[in-house]
Write a structure and sequence with these properties.
By secondary structure, this protein is an alpha/beta fold. It contains eleven helices and 17 strands. The strands form five sheets. Strands 1, 4, 5, 6, 7, 8, 11, 12 and 15 form a nine-stranded mixed sheet that branches. Strands 2-3 form a two-stranded antiparallel ribbon. A two-stranded antiparallel sheet has the order 9-10.
């Protein structure tokens, strides 16, 4: 054995031992078994969804006061504006449910399930541009390269399914066709073993490439081929100690199982008509948010641990009056349907559903303010999200912003606090879910984060 082989095999054994030892240390009784994260990429405006500010109508077109802005930085897109006119939401709000939660008229289906939701209006982040902000929410760092939250969960808890990956990603574009790019690293494993990375299902054609064997190659042939290949890879692993070889063996086997499980997963012929009435017509169309929400429920039923949905095109620097209603129409009914569907199947109690984007939007108009249209710039100081099921306290609104929805004034929730709370609901202590890399122990929340106990049921 060479020095390189010895060191590789030794560190692999140590890492495996530390991983198993850690599992015993950081686990506590979980409230959630799985997560469905409905990520709204682009930054949905809190002023048009959950953060009702009726007094803004009285100061329409007035300048944003310096006492509210407090010298906080602006993006390069509006930083050079000569004026920062306040613009209230053009859309109405009303209280809903026994909780009396304020919800925009753009979200009528979400309004019907507010008593299942914990609406958080006091999220805040340091990132002011899309890529670092999305990266921060998904990996705990604004700098690319860290493991995604789904990978951390897979690493910490493993998979409940033998026939599907533990972490699956589904993407839907807004009908407007725009939106910020979404890179594979957002669901990547970073420095964790690659077996924990998310598997992206395609929206066109076969969800996963090469599910079908070549013509003339039977299922039995595939089984014999993989068994022989696994023996060769195992010998290679014993000689080199490279953990990626173990990953390769496991992933070949998973691909074999998916050849049978994925066609069954995506066959909606046995879903009753009531399912499509619940989720909406888009649930029949692969690649839409409605279809992906239905797939999320089916994946959850089959034991997938972390299901990540991305919906794009929420970036309304202009044209918000048309763009915001369009995105809400695409997502409102399916997201509400998912919560209702999980509840009627007895799955909501142990499934954590999360809805939200990477930051909020400014109270002032970006660019020219028109009588019939306006836009809003990025705003990291406050934004809104909601959570349901999985041990979350239902029917509450947590956190408050000032009368301009510009600064958090009560119960702030930082991105790391949100991540710590999600891990806690899954039965993990975020301070002890760690992985040693380049001489130090890393974790999703870095050296920050506090569990928001007020959100726990």
């Amino acid at each position: 054995m060479t020095r390189r082989q010895f060191l590789a095999s030794s560190t692999t054994g140590i890492a495996a031992f530390q991983h198993l030892e850690g599992k015993e240390l950081y686990h506590h009784a979980p409230r959630a078994k799985r997560v469905i994260y409905l990520f709204q990429s682009g930054g949905p405006s809190q002023l048009e969804t959950f953060d009702y500010k009726p007094k803004l109508k009285d100061i329409y077109k007035s300048e944003l006061p310096d006492s509210i802005r407090r010298g906080q930085r602006l993006t390069g897109m509006s930083g050079q504006q000569a004026s920062f006119p306040v613009v209230p939401s053009k859309f109405g709000f009303a209280r809903h449910g026994q909780s009396g939660t304020w919800v925009s008229d753009l979200l009528p289906h979400t309004a019907k399930i507010v008593d299942e939701l914990a609406v958080v209006r006091s999220l805040h982040t340091e990132a002011i541009n899309h890529d670092p902000a999305v990266t921060f929410l998904q990996t705990g760092s604004q700098i690319a390269g860290r493991p995604s939250i789904g990978s951390w969960v897979s690493y910490g808890l493993g998979s409940e399914s033998k026939n599907l990956p533990g972490f699956i990603v589904l993407i839907s574009p807004g009908a407007g066709g725009g939106g910020q790019p979404l890179y594979d690293r957002l669901w990547g494993a970073g420095f964790l073993p690659s077996r924990y990375q998310g598997v992206k299902f395609r929206s066109v054609g076969s969800p996963v490439l090469y599910l079908n064997d070549p013509e003339g190659f039977s299922r039995e042939d595939r089984r014999a081929y993989l068994d022989a290949l696994a023996e060769l890879n195992q010998k290679n692993f014993e000689e080199s100690g490279d953990p990626e070889i173990s990953t390769r063996i496991a992933q070949y086997e998973m691909a074999y199982q998916m050849q049978a499980s994925v066609p069954e997963l995506t066959d909606l012929s046995k879903e009753p008509e009531s399912t499509f009435d619940l989720y909406g017509a888009d649930a029949r169309k692969p690649g839409t948010f409605g279809y992906n929400c239905l797939m999320a429920r089916r994946l959850a039923e089959r034991g997938v641990r972390f299901i990540q949905l991305y919906h794009r095109d929420w970036d309304h620097h202009g044209g918000l009056v048309k763009g915001m209603p369009a995105r809400c129409r695409e997502t409102d009914q399916p997201a509400a349907a998912l919560v209702r569907d999980l509840k009627q199947r007895g799955m909501l109690d142990d499934t954590l559903v999360v809805w939200g984007g990477e930051f909020g939007r400014t109270v002032y108009c970006q660019g020219q303010l028109k009588e019939d249209d306006y836009g809003r710039d990025h705003h990291p100081r406050c934004f809104s999200m909601w959570m349901a099921g999985g041990g979350v306290k239902p029917g509450i609104t947590y956190g408050e912003t000032d009368e301009y929805s510009y600064n958090v004034v009560k119960d702030p929730v930082h991105v790391h606090d949100l991540q710590a709370t999600l891990l806690h609901l899954l039965g993990m202590d975020h301070t002890r879910l760690t992985y040693r890399f380049q001489g130090r122990y890393f974790r999703l929340t870095d050296v920050h984060g506090t569990v928001v106990k007020a959100l726990l049921a």
